[in-house]
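Lab notebook, page 48
Experiment: co-folding of the full assembly
Goal: obtain a model of how the components sit together before planning crosslinking
Operator: M.T.
Materials (sequences as entered):
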Amino acid sequence: MTDRPRNPTIIDVAGRAGVSKSVVSRVVSGRGSVGEETRQRVLRAAQELGYVVNASARAMVAHRTYTVGAFVRDAATPFYGHLLTAMQERAAFHGYRVVTATGSGRFEEDDEYRALETLAMLRVEALIVCSGLLPSERILPFAERLPTVVAGRPETHPSITSVYCDEDEGGVALADHLVGLGHREVAVVTVPTSHSVTLGPRTAAMARRLRERGAHVLEIPGSHRETAGAWATEVLRHPGITAVMAPSDRHALALLEQLRLRGAAVPEQLSVTGYDGIGDLTTSLIGLTHWRQPIDLIGGGAVDALVQLLDGEQPPDHHRALPGALVVGRTTAPPAA
Amino acid sequence: MTDRPRNPTIIDVAGRAGVSKSVVSRVVSGRGSVGEETRQRVLRAAQELGYVVNASARAMVAHRTYTVGAFVRDAATPFYGHLLTAMQERAAFHGYRVVTATGSGRFEEDDEYRALETLAMLRVEALIVCSGLLPSERILPFAERLPTVVAGRPETHPSITSVYCDEDEGGVALADHLVGLGHREVAVVTVPTSHSVTLGPRTAAMARRLRERGAHVLEIPGSHRETAGAWATEVLRHPGITAVMAPSDRHALALLEQLRLRGAAVPEQLSVTGYDGIGDLTTSLIGLTHWRQPIDLIGGGAVDALVQLLDGEQPPDHHRALPGALVVGRTTAPPAA
DNA sequence: TTGTATGCGTTATCAG
DNA sequence: CTGATAACGCATACAA
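Observation: model returned without errors.
Model output:
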């Protein structure tokens, strides 16, 4: 039952092809030169035996694994799902594998440590950190030992490379959009930067920009989507408010749902904005006005930067900000006169 | 720059702790016995050196990797994202890693082969196949060499274990729901089973059940979501039709969007059903009536079955069907009188 | 071009 | 309880 037949080795192949194992090694690894006739014989023998290179053995002597580790804090969210897909694809292009590690969820404390230890055991050659929650200080210890790039969020520390979409720009663009429509009293669901280094800055930018443009701002603390009902209640208690800005698309959707339950019409009575640009339905069916992040480019760019780092080159941009875009949907309109 | 400092080995640790490498091995692997005092000394030395076990070296001699491979055909879709998360979590619980492989997208042909070869190089101990597209025959060659379980779809072949949510049951439940509401003329967007072993059977079940209950069925071929516009047009051309059943939530959302563009009111004029139960907004904001699959249980169950297989036990259920649930939302209602 | 020998970091077997 | 020593599968200088 469990007596799995041992996998064939280059020695087995060598025996079958009537050559030494060195020759087989050269054939399968593509290095060194072998006679064309011999090569064919080896290839055939390997084929017949179902030989597949053993990555572990290769890694031992090569001191390379061609593997990068992706550390994801909150894996189930669509944003990170897309990011992972983009990274995996780009890594394959460069000849690297991606193994992803994430906290198993239970043990908050040493969870993170265990995840990174797993990656270390695998001898990943570099690290991609995907998390809006993990503070910079927690990343530094790893960045010291491994080339590290942070994807999807700005990172100011000089020893860490990052690829992201500028949060400030998005927040400002959305605020300008609302002010341009004529909104003068706007609620912003804010998240402290200490809680998320992505949601924090973008909501701060929204509020700041609104004030710069002369609008009155009501800040509603909203770290958790589960409390969307409270935001809705709070907003509706201020009849003067004509628009609400959410920290992310998911926050916005939760808010839309709660407003709907309370009978508030969007965008007639209240305009709503999101942030991220995840999922087709956000755009098409819901028509949520939001700031769209170029996730594919972020994931791909992060891998590109990593590969350059591994090749000993310094990436052109240590901190690369990619352009996002304002997507105007059907959840924003001029305020009711 | 690229001169990465060589990772410390058990020999380094042994030297620092003043013992032989055998002792260190016993301490870090937890096998064999060592004096408590010595153990502490070794642990401290390892700590100071930042020693981490080398998984490759360990795998070489242990002939085990504690890694299972997940082969995912279409990774970016929410359904598989959730599934992966669930599997990863459950695998960690059992002490296994999950490395996922997926076609890089470009080369349709040998793409699949390369992905599985990568998994083989890594010497994954088992395979989880997640794909509604991959036909059984393509899976068999791998299942012969590796314990294999198919997640998220039924699989009748005796040498392959599967964990899924019965497609027939869901299709029937949704059809019954519509008939119960009074619908007598219903359109079903169908997908051939040759194209998808999940979407095919469930849409077939819908159509079959509708007919059993005496309803008139219009079957609309709809393999690709991009053609949702055509489905909408087709449906609206038949004024007698009062409901449309889609093969999945995503298909349903695309359809809803197209119906909206054409001014058709849901559910007043037309009822719409989905399938899967992915994403919070499907349920809350859109209120899509659908059949909900227990994705977490499917992912977890697949891993559990795999671990049992690896332990030499025969899983209790060779083909395990998990219960789904009908979720009635706001996109279905009695037909307009 | 081909074969031989050596080492990579661990675990396991066997003496001490 | 501890210490040598032999694999594990592969790549690579080096010799033929």
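Interpretation: The mean pLDDT of chain A is 89.
Next step: discuss with group before ordering constructs.
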